[in-house]
Amino acid sequence: MRRLYSDIIDNIVALRIAIATSVLVVVFAFGTLGYHLVEDMSFFDGFYMTFITITTIGFSELKNLTSAGRILTMIIFVMGIGVISYIASQTTQLLFESELFRRRAMDKQLKKMENHYIVCGYGRIGHRISEVLKEANIPIVVVENRDSSIERIKADDLIHVQGNAQEESVLKEAGIERARGLVCALSRDQDNVFTTLIARELREDIFILVRTNERQNTRKIKRSGADKVISPYEIGADRMANVILRPHVDQFIHRITGETQDHVFDEITIFEGAELAGKTLEEAQIRQKYFVVIIAIIPADEQNITFNPGSDDRMKVGDSLIVLGDVERIETMRTEGCNDLRSLSERVSNYDFKEKLLDHDLTLE
Question: For the whole model, what pTM was predicted?
Answer without folding.
Answer: 0.69
